[in-house]
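Let us work through a complete example step by step.
Step 1: write down the sequence.
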Amino acid sequence: MKYILSIDQGTTSSRAILFDKNMQPVATAQQEFKQIFPASGLVEHDPEEIWQSTVDTCNAVLDKISGNSKDIIAIGITNQRETTIIWDKDTGKPIYNAIVWQDRRTSDYCQKLKSIGHEPVIIEKTGLLLDPYFSASKIKWILDNVKGAKEKATEGKLLFGTVDCFLLWRLTEGRSHKTDATNASRTMLYNIKDGHWDNDLCSLFEIPVNMLPEVMDCAADFGNTSIFGHKIPIFGIAGDQQAATIGQACFEPGMMKSTYGTGCFALLNTGSELIHSKNRLLSTIAYQLDGKVTYALEGSIFIAGAVVQWLRDGLKIIEHASDADTLAQQSDQLHKLIMVPAFTGLGAPYWDANCRGAIYGLTRNSGPAEFSRAALESVAYQTCDLLEAMKKDIPHDIKTTLRVDGGMTSSNWTMQFLADMLNAPIDRPANTETTALGAAWLAGMRAGFYPNHDEFAKKWQLEKRFISRMEPAERDKNYCAWQDAIKRTLS
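Step 2: predict the structure and record it as tokens.
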């Protein structure tokens, strides 16, 4: 038996999954790690904990095949995007915690750049809005706030990377400082039209270009690792949302997927055409294969599955994530709460870094069941916002069906409400490990172990389709209530 090892390094946990010749998952290991909240709106991770959890989960799945790394054909990596790590080139030690994509500490700085007119140029070059979400302002913050960092960076002694790049550096024992085009496209330093790091943007953020990794195709020779006993090539890298797009086989323009993990991210394939949104969506690279770029429009929601974690860890009204689904079904259908989970601000299409979460409609009858239902419904409402924006940007080119993946899609109640509110079919695949599968396919295809994308797309299988059952009047009433709540919440 031969396998592809997929490393899926996410926002709250690291996972390793072995896929067999038929692209089926045969062994999985997962390990959560600490979320660090230094202050309101600030989110960090310990890079060493990210690294150790990655190694531990890889060893755990290897143990399930008797620890024989000779059976691993290649490794694919997918990762939480935008999260920023800077480390010492000589020692490999991070100089500060990883600043997570959710972190809003650079809001004032980004607002300052907006006020003096820099956002239009950034949008034109990167497809991104000027927001703390992306890596550039996080890099600048670390260089400005860690003693001696700016000088070391200028001298070429520091390296920057998103999480994939940091893991690659560690896996190759410092031999490979590379990333792929999808992760590069989320830094706000990469010109997605011309395909290179942009010197003007690096100057704007005062970031030395020599800190930045080499940018590769998503399926490429990124180096090899021997830390698991035998030499294994690393042949695939893609940011988690792009990997899910690949894993969902959204290879045709107009196809759309939405991933419901910590956040929610909807990507719409726009083919070879780079479309600049007029409705505050992001233009990004969906994937790059054989030097050819495929673009996408993306809507980014900061809080999706994280709202269920809040019910569990913050309010402590549930013990397990699945309990939210059960409680929602038990809620009083006549008692309507609207929850706006702006714990770290609102993403697309509002991009308000300063507003915070709110709940509307509270009465003395509001309890855990109503809170749970409002939390799950908030994910569907936010997805409605994204789809409405996409329809305005390209009204005639969107396929009617939405392919979904991520942990929240296991909730039939949530997926049915999503179908009701979007008034569109929701397709849940038979293989729900789409993010890890996307990274595995990239590596396996590059190794000649897996088929090309046309054959891969034919293997996509439907597990369940959810069809809207809601009356138009009820849908309109629900969405109007949501939009009213949004207006009241925006800062």
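Step 3: interpret the result. The chain has a mean pLDDT of 92.
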